[in-house]
Amino acid sequence: MKKTTVFIIAALFLLVLPRTADAQKHRSYVIGFYNLENLFDTYHDEGKNDYEYLPDGANEWTEEKYAKKLKNMARVIADMKKDNGAWHAVLGVSEVENRHVLEDLVSEPAIAEANYQIVHYDSPDRRGVDCALFYRPNIFKYITSEAIPFTFDDNTRIDWSQWTEEEKEALRTRDVLMVRGTIDGEMFAFFVCHLPSRLGGKGADLRPRGAEIAYNRAMELQKEFPGIKIVVMGDMNDNPTDVSMTDFLRGKEFIKDVTDEDFFDPFLSMIKAGYSSLYYRGEGNIFDIVMVNNALANAPAGTFQIQPLIKKKFYGRVFSKPYMTNQSGQYKGTPFRTFSNGAFINGFSDHYPTYIVIKK
Q1: Which residues pair with 305 in a beta bridge?
Q2: What domains can you pick out in the chain, each with its CATH number?
Q3: pLDDT (tens place) for every residue of the chain, 360 residues total
């Protein structure tokens, strides 16, 4: 009787094992980015120009409004989970004031079960807005991270001759965040960017420089860790078709054209097809970009590779729902933001989140 029982257990184990192994081979994960549009708390951070987001500031930013903002951001993240059937494994965010607001967000009841861990550094931005990364520790195994500062180094293709030393010193913008770790034993690096805003004039040099900083560090990592899989994401304040993305980050539209010195930009095809993640001066744009290096675009068999998402045609997604979009009025069809013409309207963000899926 005992021998029969042992035999049955062993047979069941053998039946389950191949399925488990097969499931291991076909894991898929969501990786994305979301500009949270001025996620500020109600307290002053020393040395930062955050006065408009105080209870007595221009926006009359109260605890009640802050709580609504947190709830709205969490709702979007939770709805992406519903659509995908899984939480983001990695989610880059921007326009966050400090670690406090990040901790408050990941603790929101709608997303608390995801158990997101946080990587964040305070940046030199004058308003105090930073980039950060959320990750699920059961999937992404954190190793190290760094905040890469924006610099005016001479080792660049950009001509700084029109910039005075005083102008350079006055510029205080966001760092580029780099986080390195592993997923299922494969080495990954995630870059989160919020490139300088469209200031006009000389400002046009700043975004290519920001892209160049991220690109140069990515190429260093490829040399240091052959085969490393790299994702560069963020609010680039430029479209996939702009020189910062096509030239300085070497974003390519088609996977077949990607080499080890390039990145595959899924949103290059999507903007040409009419997709938008935000509206700037009345025109649709995709500033919220997620791109991958050749090791993820043309991945070796049996390893993680970026997957087509929409009709097997596009490899990225701009996530929007009716509640995230203005349904009427002057801004109909555009993202439903937190403030409009200086008034709190209990919206979400002026950007839609974007994401990709990788699969083994």
Answers
A1: 359
A2: 26-359 (3.60.10.10)
A3: 444 444 444 444 444 444 333 334 468 999 999 999 999 999 999 989 999 999 999 999 999 999 999 999 999 999 999 999 999 999 999 999 999 999 999 999 999 999 999 999 999 999 999 999 999 999 999 999 999 999 998 778 898 888 889 988 888 899 999 999 999 999 999 999 999 987 666 678 899 999 999 999 999 999 999 999 999 999 999 999 999 999 999 999 999 999 999 999 999 999 999 999 999 888 999 999 999 999 999 999 999 999 999 777 899 999 999 999 999 998 999 999 999 888 999 999 999 999 999 999
